[in-house]
Design brief:
With about 425 residues, the chain is of the alpha/beta class. The protein has helices at about 20-30, 75-85, 95-105, 125-140, 155-160, 180-185, 190-205, 235-240, 295-305, 315-330, 335-350, 385-395, 420-435; strands at about 45-50, 50-55, 60, 115-120, 140-145, 175, 210-215, 245-250, 275-280, 290-295, 360-365, 365-375, 375-380, 400, 400-405, 410. Bound molecules: pyridoxal-5'-phosphate.
Length: about 425
């Protein structure tokens, strides 16, 4: 029987087994909060483009990447950050032209109604602020999230991240709905998901809490990656908005061109978010994130509560962010994600048709999920086999992670600059790991 897995437990080194050398050193420094990948953790030395180099000299093709997403150590980002940090970096209470230049470039990518952007240092901070704004604007206290969602690490956001909770159920103000896949909703994903969200709203009303927001990762990354059919989010979003709740599009994972067909993941569903949160790929590794909202919503929040972020959107962060936007544009990375991603998906589907332990391939652009199962039992997710495949891929020089309720979905997120030859290299390693 498959057991639900927590996000931080997937492909994780077991701290209880202790270690030697750099592992012991890390455990001594971070203790129980240490989170390392792989049963035998990898010490990294450097990285460039889609490749990472370990301390022992091994080169790995990075398919886990969702931070340096325009490519590791991209020279344009490195130069922009270096120039700015050598010129001026400070807290955020002075006028600095580059900051507004960046905000305007970012806003050109966002719906015009969301014309205020608060920059933060992490996606968690962005979601925390978004949830507080939603409460203020809606006058309600509750949140609807998917069953295996992860939205971040502050106290408020952890409560809305079932995948991070090891022992507790969500508190009364958080109601979960199954991820928008066939397992829960069969062929009517849009209708089934909307019905589940409406039932969650009714439950929050019955508890006297009401719905402040539907908070959804637009690609449902930790739930196992759900992108199709396009438009499935719309009836659920419209139901929440019609009742006075907000729709927070968490773009921390799919944002910045990864899904190929659009710059943001929510665009796939033809919905109009009230708030967009973003992070991870935004600074290509420089810690930065943000929340875009309507001016009247932010004004309502700021009437009661001051919001100040010392580092969020500092001049160096904005230099990194601007360079990322330019590189995506100049190198045609959205188109690349679309083209290489589509081919990769069809190559994986072709392997799946011959592999009795590959149950499904899902996703959009360069954000794909591959379900692994017990032999010839597509409905039985197999987390142990998934770890085996992850280890076999590592031995073949490819880094990859897991996701999903049962930890049996391979999560593919290579850098957006992935070449066809690099995609082929992945496909070859994957075929070696899953074909009988
Ligand atoms: C969908 C989603 N939202 C928010 C976050 C939190 O971002 P951060 O780790 O930058 O705080 C994450 C992190 O994994 C995420 O996957």
């Amino acid at each position: 029987m498959s057991e639900p897995r927590r996000i931080l437990e997937m492909n994780a080194f077991d701290n209880r087994q202790g270690g030697a050398g750099p592992v012991a050193r890390r455990l001594g420094n971070l203790g129980a909060a240490s989170v390392l990948f792989y049963r035998a953790p990898i010490e990294m030395m450097s990285a460039q483009g889609a490749w990472m180099v370990a301390a022992d000299g091994t080169r790995y093709l990075d398919f886990y990447n969702n931070v340096p997403s325009v490519g590791h150590s991209h020279p344009e980002v490195v130069a922009a950050v270096s120039r700015q940090i050598a010129t001026l970096n400070t807290h955020t209470r002075y006028l600095v032209a580059g900051v507004d230049t960046y905000l305007e470039a970012l806003k050109a990518r966002l719906p015009s109604a969301l014309s205020n952007v608060v920059l933060t240092c992490s996606g968690s901070e962005a979601n925390d602020l978004a949830m507080r704004v939603a409460r203020q604007v809606s006058g309600a206290g509750g949140f609807i999230v998917t069953e295996t969602a992860y939205h971040g690490n502050t106290a408020l956001v952890t409560e809305a991240s079932p995948s991070a909770q090891k022992r507790t159920d969500p508190p009364a103000h958080v109601v979960t709905v199954p991820a928008p896949g066939r397992e829960a909703y069969g062929d009517d994903i849009a209708g089934g998901f909307a019905r589940a969200v409406r039932a969650a709203m009714a439950e929050l009303d019955a508890r006297g809490i009401g719905t402040a927001a539907l908070l959804a990762d637009s690609i449902f990354s930790s739930d196992g990656i759900f992108a199709d059919p396009p438009g499935f989010l719309r009836p659920a979003v419209e139901a929440v908005q019609a009742a006075g709740g907000l729709y927070i599009a968490d773009e921390v994972q799919p944002g910045f061109a990864r899904t190929g067909s659009a710059f943001w993941g929510y665009a796939r569903h033809g919905v109009a978010p009230d708030i967009v949160t973003m992070g991870k790929p935004m600074g290509n590794g420089f810690p930065m994130a943000g929340m875009a909202a309507r001016p009247e919503h932010l004004a309502a929040f700021c009437e009661d509560t001051g919001y100040f972020n010392t580092f969020g959107g500092n001049p160096v962060a904005c230099a990194a962010g601007l360079a990322v936007l330019r590189v995506i544009e100049e190198e045609g990375l959205q188109e690349n994600a679309q083209r290489v991603g589509a081919r990769l998906k069809s190559d994986l589907e072709e392997i799946a048709a011959r592999a009795p332990r590959v149950a499904a391939v899902r996703g959009a652009g360069l954000f794909l999920g591959v379900d692994l199962c017990a032999p010839d039992a597509p409905d039985t997710p197999d987390a142990a086999f998934t770890v085996q495949v992850i280890d076999a891929m590592r031995d073949a020089g490819v880094l990859i992670g897991a996701a999903g309720r049962y930890g049996a979905t391979l999560k593919l997120r290579p850098p957006l600059c992935l070449s066809q030859a690099e995609a082929d290299r992945f496909t070859e390693a994957f075929a070696g790991a899953v074909l009988p």
